[in-house]
Design a protein that fits this description.
Length: 606
């Protein structure tokens, strides 16, 4: 059992938008708890019956009309049935809680899988706080509703039927008349379902807004302090809490405040039981023990009515949470509508781009138009251009995260056709250089197989990591607060290099390091390149002498292509940018090894 739990993989059932599919995905847990519920809620009736018989036996023994053994026989029967139904109750509760936890794990795994498959067009509109609210609050709400519904299916429905049948056995007339108020109480609960559903939906949305606000504030706490906005933010947060409080109170008033009315209505029939049952005792039709047993069973049946009403109210409230979960579970991944995937071509270029056009999901104007170029295996291709020229847009388009127009072929195969593990053929280092709140090892490897030492060495992070308190096991805190900007950048670079990626897209990898560190990393990359292809997107051109080819972007198009030397020999954007940067670096940079071999026209600043 323990090995089975350790090896369990959580995932939604095939019919992930049907709640019953989550319940019946685990038949063993469901049927064991069902059997326990059936035994508990039927055998418990015999407890009340033998309690009455024990009372009658005690009275007969006291009057000398029966042996003491009769009293003990009924007493032990009462105790035996009590032990049996309590044991059944234990199994019912244990397996119900196990089923509930498995279901919640599947729902959260499904939400995470849906998030990972959501197109970037959708993720750009997603709020972290709202997603966390769905994964935690809404899943818990649905879980509580399922637990209460399935549990009360036995503890209320079966129990009420068992008590009803037993009461009918004693007196059909009294039972049918006294039970009339019970369906009336249930009808009252059903009439409130629409109001309760809408209140619960508003309350869950209010909880999402609070989570979004908290997530934003945790991320931007330094900014709030810097501008002295603490009091303003506290007031805003207080208003959000107040709104949620009012909605929760209103929902609770309907869901729980009406329970006394349900109980009072359902139990009003006890007046008939006491009156007509008492007449039976006076008339000699019933003994005191029989009357006690009947009254106990009827009161237990009537009192459970409020549980049935509570289940109805709970489910109507949880329906809003389930709908919010389904909104995310229904999300599918992006599928391009281009031609069928091509098979891998052994002699094809590592990367071929043909007539590529691209627009960010959150933008209106195209960032790239009719871009075409090739990159071979073992090549380093530099991509540069003025601010807003389309460098980062080209990197994003080639990452495969966003839809695009045109063709991007990786080893002769369409980029969009790469699925699952094949996606690891491309490594993308974006300009944000995100760092997880984990150690160096995790931030570089991300659970993949590869050579950690080689990746750290390439990024010139070996010495830095060795100087950390626990080496590569040192936790880097949220967003890498323990690292400098250059170290964060180099950890992200090591992450991109780690593994077996055939194509590396490095967006602005050197903006936070000096020119000497930049050259060191470029030398490492050139030595360890092998058959990999690197696209280096940067506005800094100091390292472009070490590239095999350079693409110059301007207004979303390729304005120039060629080697570093060829482009410097031409009048154009590249030469203008390079000479301007050379001038800013000053005389010391102009004497650096990077300047060796430049053509004469590049030697003198403008």
């Amino acid at each position: 059992m323990e090995e089975e739990e350790e090896g369990r993989v959580f995932a939604p059932p095939r019919q992930k938008l049907k709640l019953t599919a989550y319940v019946f995905k685990y038949p063993r847990q469901f049927w064991v708890q069902a059997l326990g519920g059936l035994i508990y809620n039927t055998v418990i009736v015999f407890g009340a019956i033998f309690l009455g018989r024990t009372i009658d036996a005690a009275n007969l023994v006291y009057q000398g009309e029966a042996q003491l053994s009769l009293f003990y026989a009924n007493l032990f029967a009462f105790l035996g049935f009590t032990v049996l139904f309590q044991l059944a109750r234990y199994f019912k509760r244990f397996y119900m809680r196990q089923l509930l936890n498995l279901m919640k794990g599947d729902m959260r795994a499904g939400l995470l899988a849906s998030l990972l498959q959501t197109p970037m067009t959708g993720l750009s509109k997603e709020k972290v706080g709202d997603m966390m609210s769905r994964m935690i609050g809404d899943v818990d709400q649905v879980g509580r509703s399922v637990q209460k519904t399935v549990t009360e299916m036995w503890d209320t429905a079966v129990l009420m039927l068992a008590y009803f049948a037993a009461c009918l056995f004693y007196s059909p007339k009294i039972t049918l008349l006294a039970a009339i108020p019970i369906p009336i109480a249930l009808l009252l609960a059903e009439l409130l379902r629409h109001r309760l559903y809408h209140l619960a939906k508003k309350a869950r949305k209010a909880a999402s807004r609070i989570n979004v606000h908290l997530q934003h504030n945790v991320s931007g706490v330094a900014l709030l302090r810097l501008f002295g906005l603490e009091e303003t933010d506290r007031n805003k947060f207080s208003r959000l809490l107040d709104k949620q409080l009012k909605l929760n109170v209103a929902a609770a008033a309907l869901q729980n405040g009406m329970l006394p009315l349900y109980i009072l209505t359902a139990c009003s029939g006890v007046v008939l039981v006491v009156g007509m049952g008492g007449a039976n005792v006076v008339g000699g039709l019933w003994s005191i023990g029989v009357f006690t047993a009947y009254l106990t069973m009827f009161m237990a049946m009537a009192a459970r009515t409020h549980k049935a009403a509570e289940v109805m109210n709970t489910w109507h409230g949880a329906k809003a949470s389930w709908e919010r979960i389904c909104e995310k579970l229904a999300v599918g991944g992006y599928e391009a509508e281009a031609t069928a995937p091509l098979p891998a071509t052994p002699n094809a270029a590592a990367l071929q781009v043909r007539s590529l056009s691209f627009t960010y999901p959150f933008g209106d104007e195209p960032c790239l138009q009719d871009v075409s170029f090739c990159a071979g295996k073992g090549e380093i291709v530099g991509v540069t251009g003025p601010v807003g020229s389309g460098k980062s847009a080209l990197a994003a388009a080639l990452s495969g995260l966003f839809p695009y127009d045109g063709e991007v072929l990786v080893g002769g195969r369409h980029l969009y056709s790469l699925k699952g593990a094949e996606r690891q053929k491309i490594a993308y280092m974006d300009a944000e250089h995100f760092i997880f709140s984990d150690d160096v090892d995790f931030n570089v490897a991300l659970g993949r197989e590869g050579d950690l030492d080689e990746a750290l060495e390439l990024a010139a992070m070996t010495e830095d990591a060795a100087g950390f308190e626990q080496g590569t096991r040192t936790r880097l805190m949220e967003r890498g607060l323990r690292l400098s900007g250059g170290q964060r950048q180099r950890v992200a670079l090591a992450r991109a290099w780690f593994g077996n990626a055939e194509i590396l897209l490095l967006d602005d990898p050197f903006s936070a390091v000096d020119v000497h560190m930049e050259r060191r990393i470029m030398e490492n990359m050139r030595k360890k390149l092998g058959g990999r292809t690197v696209l280096l997107f940067s506005h800094r051109l100091a390292a472009f002498e070490m590239t095999d080819k350079v693409l110059v972007m301007e207004r979303g198009r390729v304005a120039q292509q060629g080697t570093h030397e060829e482009l410097l020999a031409q009048d154009g954007v590249y030469r203008d940018i390079y000479l301007a940067q050379k001038f800013l670096r000053g005389k010391e940079t102009s004497r650096s090894p990077l300047m060796v071999g430049l053509p004469p026209q590049a030697a003198t600043p403008p």
